[in-house]
Design goal:
2 strands, single chain, 161 residues, Arc Repressor Mutant, subunit A, mainly alpha, 2 domains
Length: 161
């Protein structure tokens, strides 16, 4: 089980991994990840000191993943995000879904359609899972209605979505 701080840190890193090179403002990160704004500052400082994120103040500032964090290998102590952009739901689908549980059935159907085009990535994730442990990280607060639930279902089935 993760501590609340670790869960918040994973949410922040996951969110930043989805938008590489694009600085994200504190208010945006707090809203999307559902991390309390007052606590987010502490989490971002900790991640910055650890070298996982970098922040810049000012009108064009924000936080983004450090380049090394984006290319970390799966076996490294910090988790890699290189596959997340390819296998994650499209921006359009995530925006449409907006973490609304009443839309989950349709979100699931549309995400399965997107995953059907990612056979190489799914094979890669299945190999990782078969060789050891695969942890799916998600930024949603709802543990039952999110993309990781759908992806885990597909990976467990062992066949195409």
């Amino acid at each position: 089980m993760f501590s609340q701080t670790n869960e918040y840190a994973l949410r922040v890193i996951t969110y930043l991994a989805l938008y590489p090179g694009k600085p994200a403002k504190n208010a945006e990160i707090a809203k999307v990840t559902q991390v309390p704004p007052g606590y987010l500052y502490k989490v971002l400082q900790t991640l910055d000191r650890a070298g996982l994120v970098h922040g810049h103040r000012g009108m064009h500032g924000g936080f983004w993943l450090q380049p090394d964090s984006q290319t970390a290998s799966y076996g490294s102590p910090t988790f890699g995000s290189d596959w997340a952009r390819d296998i994650a739901p499209s921006t359009e689908l995530r925006v449409w879904f907006n973490h609304d549980p009443t839309r989950f059935a349709e979100f699931r159907r549309r995400y399965l359609d997107e995953l059907a085009t990612q056979t190489d990535q799914l094979k890669r994730l299945r190999r990782i899972a078969n060789d050891g442990r695969l942890t799916l990280v998600y930024a949603a607060h709802d543990q039952e209605h999110n993309d990781a639930v759908v992806l885990a279902e597909v990976l467990r089935r062992g066949r195409r979505p």
